[in-house]
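From the shared-data thread, chain only:
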Amino acid sequence: MRNKLLAILLVVMMVFMFSACTSSTPPPAGDNGDDGNGVEAEQVSINLWHIYVDETDENRVTTEKVIAEYMDAHPNVKIEQHILQDADYKTKMLTEFSGSASNIDIFSYWGAGRAGDIVNAGKMLCIEDYLSPDKVAAIKHGADNNFRYGGKLYGLPMASWMMVLYCNVELFEDNNIALPETYDEWLDACKKFDAAGIIPVALGGGVDDGWQAAFVYEALVNRIVGALNEAKVLDDMAGFAGNDGFVEAAEKMVEMNAANAFGKSPLEIDEVTSNVQFFSGVAAMRLTGSWFTTNVYTDEDSVVAGKVTALPIPIVPGGNGKDTDYVGGFIDGWFVNAATQHPEVVADLAWELSVAMGTHQHEIGEGFTAFNYPTDESGLTPLGKEVSALANRMVDGMVAWDTFLPGDLADIHIDACQALLAARANVGAFIEEYTKIFD
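Structure, as tokens:
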């Protein structure tokens, strides 16, 4: 009996020792790069990809801060960042993940349909398997909807965003033009600014920035069709052809373009140029996401700090959109390549990035954190407070279509919206393009 007990005890001890030696989570490195017990820690190299090209962009600054702090806390981890402009980035990710994407460990991306392509190909890490239950529980209810596939969490949201119509109040006052609350007032303001030689709405919808053209269409759909109706069509991938609101939105976009609302040649300039137009005071308005807020104060070209107000998308009288509907939501996040050699480390880094960036975006008024952690809003700029107050009264939202739709369908959407900014835009041809998406 005694021998049997000793044998059982020996087996238990061996199992314990084996499991301790084969733990999947690498020990944290000490100050000298060891595991805290004097043993050299495994050297880990991580390739991190993102789209924050502008070195003054708050997301770029926060990303680099987290990278530096993470490497400082984990001397055995080396993180190399790779940066591409939005359109090139999307192409790069699709190309890489058509193969092994061996040079990608962690990357910023968009949930819903965009990430769904990679998840469905079996090439995205189920990040929930590498997070503690308390971390998963810290994500706000609904904030992870666009990051779950088959009920499992594959990515981490950072913060929600909201489309805003930024207006240079000084230009409105100097030209005796009222801030627009309705579509007709918006169109009228555009015509008056154009007559005065001022670009009404800065918009660079060129080759690499077609999402800006799509923003105009989606803003009008939001006000004519309504956020909930719009979301149902995209969720069901049906009901587009039978809804005249989508046609009316296209017609109004063509009407605005014919009135030079977006300048003389919006398809010939890019996002950076359109930003400069607004920052330098040669454009009266800028329709873009809330991430733009702090740039009004920090961009080197900006002379409009203190002169800008934040407005919601103008209402279309008779439309189904409510003044509490908005374009935006939780869609930007961090994802991990399923083929990474260091899933535990990379999942941990993704968590650190998502929480830090979500918190920072919230605290400067660019977005609204996805996590149930305290935030400090005392440092909000006046414009940041406006955007935050505006967001707090919104109820129903729909994210940008090019992030919700799978990549190939998103490209059709963007190309079709760019065509509405062409000199000979054809609404009938535009609607025909959408049969490729919804039929």
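The first strand starts at residue 44 and ends at 50.
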